[in-house]
Amino acid sequence: MDCSPQKSMLGFKDSNLVSINGNRLSLVEAIVFLSVEVGKINWTWLIQTYTKVLEVREDLAAAVIMDALRHLELASLESKALDLQQELEQKWAGEGTAGRWGSTCHIMSDAALASSLVDVSGGVTCNISHTHYLPCKQGVNPKGDNKYT
């Protein structure tokens, strides 16, 4: 099996993953594809807890997707919008953690977060190797790029 570093271009439209390497894929297909790409280099994370170490394999594709989207957000949104977005993410997570799914605060945070991502479109090329995954500097296309419309 080829374990050499891979480059994968993740394309987003309105913050939704729509393609990998120019091929349109559903989210489920994209996760399967990335799991194979990342999995073939036996990439695993160890999460240290107080009493044991957990090995996480299932979340690798999600980690690559979420990291690429975060880089695209940083390239697309104003710094004040990013600050507010992080505050809203904390409120949203706090409401969910407290068991208040569907509360007014949770619904408002969810709607505001969704609206902040409407224009986040473009692509991020990631280098994936046995030691890391990193976005390539030239891979980020700020909004206004019609390639993903």
From TrEMBL:
One of its GO terms (molecular function) is argininosuccinate synthase activity. This is Chromosome 4, complete genome. InterPro entries: AS_cat/multimer_dom_body. The gene is FG07760.1.
